[in-house]
């Protein structure tokens, strides 16, 4: 079930002098578009061109190239044949919908909390969570802190409106974790691909087998 890797190996053949780590990573990935680059290469490119110091946050910059700049950078999460140390910039095309993760304005958040009665708005099977700010969470333990959650996961709709209370809900910490990217509260649908991506390989294989049988591809 481990497919052939169609991507050739890339290489690091020059120095990248751009000031920002993200800019150096971007230039290097563009030079190697459609090729496999390794974690070691990315760390090398991330090093300060003058001091040679290795930054701790290169991985975060890589993730910003995905979320903020809209590049499709494949990893083991996306392709089974890539190893944990391998990445591929799939094409030079940027997803137009990419944007910075936004938060509701102070006013919007105030309206959301008022609507929520200062309680967690999570609903599951008709049961409301209703934990209030400062409560002790009887399941997760710890003191409840309510934070804003965009109803549609970032991966589905990154263009959140900070001024529209209807797009936001108040969630306790435990339900922020439960939801993650798995649930689209607006459509009420599970974000199936995100769930499958998060599964261990054995469970991915079960889903794969199910789909093959379902579609008669066996
Ligand atoms: Zn809750």
Structure description:
This protein has about 220 residues and is an alpha+beta fold. The protein is about 30% helix and about 15% strand. It folds into two domains: about 20-95; about 105-195, no CATH class. It has helices at about 20-30, 40-45, 60-65, 105-115, 175-180, 190-200, 200-215; strands at about 35-40, 70-75, 85-95, 125, 125-130, 145-150, 170, 185, 190. It has a three-stranded antiparallel beta sheet. Strands 4-5 form a two-stranded antiparallel ribbon. It has a two-stranded antiparallel ribbon with strand order 6-7.
Q: What features would you highlight for this structure?
A:
31% helix; two-stranded antiparallel sheet; 218 residues; alpha+beta; binds zinc ion
Short summary:
This protein is an alpha+beta fold. It has helices at residues 21-31, 39-46, 58-67, 106-115, 173-179, 192-198, 201-214, and strands spanning 36-38, 71-74, 86-94, 123-124, 127-128, 147-150, 168-171, 183-184, 189-190. The mean pLDDT is 88.
Ordered list of secondary-structure elements with their pairings:
Elements (H helix, E strand, L loop, with lengths): L20 H11 L4 E3 H8 L11 H10 L3 E4 L11 E9 L11 H10 L7 E2 L2 E2 L18 E4 L17 E4 L1 H7 L3 E2 L4 E2 L1 H7 L2 H14 L4
Helix pairs in contact: 1-3
Strand order in the largest sheet: 1-3-2
**Terminal CA distance:** 13 Å
Q: What structural class do you assign from the helix and strand content?
A: alpha+beta
Strand fraction equals: 5-15%
> Ranges with pLDDT <50 over ≥5 residues?
none
What overall form do the CA principal axes indicate? globular
């Amino acid at each position: 079930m481990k497919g052939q890797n169609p991507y050739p190996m890339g290489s690091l053949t020059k120095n990248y002098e751009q000031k920002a780590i993200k800019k150096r990573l971007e230039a290097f990935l563009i030079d190697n578009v459609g090729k496999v680059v390794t974690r070691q290469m990315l760390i090398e490119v991330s090093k300060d061109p003058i001091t040679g110091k290795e930054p701790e946050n290169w991985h975060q910059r890589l993730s910003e190239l995905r979320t903020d700049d809209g590049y499709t950078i494949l990893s083991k999460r996306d392709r089974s044949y890539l190893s944990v140390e391998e990445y591929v910039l799939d094409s030079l095309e940027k997803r137009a919908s990419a944007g910075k993760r936004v938060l509701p304005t102070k006013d919007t958040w105030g309206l959301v909390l008022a609507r929520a009665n200062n309680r967690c708005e999570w609903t599951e099977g008709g049961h409301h969570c209703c934990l209030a700010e400062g409560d002790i969470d009887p399941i997760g333990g710890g003191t409840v802190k309510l934070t804003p959650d965009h109803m549609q996961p970032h991966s589905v709709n990154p263009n959140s409106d900070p001024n529209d209370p209807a797009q936001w809900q108040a969630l306790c910490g435990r339900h922020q974790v439960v939801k993650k990217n798995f649930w689209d509260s607006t459509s009420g649908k599970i974000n199936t691909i995100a769930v499958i991506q998060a599964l261990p390989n054995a469970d991915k294989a079960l889903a794969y087998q199910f789909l093959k049988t379902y579609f008669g591809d066996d």
